[in-house]
Specification:
There is one protein chain. This protein has one domain (9-204): 3-Layer(aba) Sandwich (Rossmann fold), CATH 3.40.50.300. It has helices at residues 19-27, 70-77, 94-102, 121-131, 136-146, 196-204; strands at 9-13, 36-40, 52-56, 84-87, 110-114, 149-155, 161-171, 177-186, 189-192. The two termini are 17 Å apart. It is of the alpha/beta class. Helix 2 packs parallel to helix 3, helix 3 crosses helix 5 and helix 4 packs across helix 5 (136-146). The protein is globular and about 55 Å long.
């Protein structure tokens, strides 16, 4: 549903929880006539898709020139008419450029982020944006308009990796973005949670944010 209806989403989880693997799989579900532009620090995503453009960061040479950052890649990607803009891992100031892109008509964008729970994602993105000079109010305003869904993964003690929960975004009375569980893993598998109707409504209208 998220892929078909072009919802913008991030996949969260700890190290080794399977974020890159799941994102590659989901990107393989994108319609074959859509162009996917990947911006990564190192080429890890391997979507089974016929129309993928890969962009990779580059360190500076011995003379201190030639540096290409993830922020540079996101900006360049927007000039390539992407149907899907993908940031392999959001972990720095590039969060500002990604949110700006998702707020300017680039629906269906996605990426991964390290977080202990789906509910922690807004705070995690806030911390990344703060380090880049974006204040709290501005970040939450952009986040509410840009992102629709958080898919959280866990790695169990036995090594099994799975989706633990799917959250939608909402705003509290102070204007800060929070997450609301829409689907959670229970004793009998996935169960609908309070945010399910919001998620269904987002899909029915083909995207849109909180």
């Amino acid at each position: 549903m998220c892929i078909r209806d072009r919802l913008s989403f991030v996949i969260s989880g700890g190290t080794g929880s399977g974020k890159t693997t799941l994102l590659s799989t989901l990107l393989g579900l994108v319609a074959p006539d859509e162009r996917i532009v990947l911006a990564e620090d190192s080429a890890e995503l391997r979507p089974d898709h016929p129309h993928v453009v890969r962009l990779e960061t580059r360190p500076a040479n011995q003379e201190g020139t030639g540096l290409v950052t993830l922020r540079d890649l996101v900006r360049q990607a927007l000039r390539m008419r992407p149907d899907r803009l993908v940031v392999g891992e959001v972990r720095g100031p590039e969060v500002m450029d990604l949110l700006a892109a998702l707020n300017t008509g680039h629906e269906g964008g996605c990426g991964t982020v390290h977080a202990n729970a789906a509910a922690d994602v807004p705070a995690r993105l806030e911390a990344l944006a703060s380090a880049a000079g974006l204040d709290r109010a501005a970040l939450h305003s952009q986040l509410a308009a840009a992102l629709s869904v958080v898919i959280h993964l866990v790695r169990e003690h036995g090594g099994r990796r799975r989706v633990a929960e799917v959250h939608v975004l909402d705003r509290d009375r102070a204007g800060l973005v929070t997450t609301v569980p829409a689907v959670v893993w229970g004793a009998d598998g996935f169960e609908r949670a309070p945010g399910w109707e919001h998620l269904a409504a987002l899909c029915e209208r083909g995207g849109g944010a909180a």
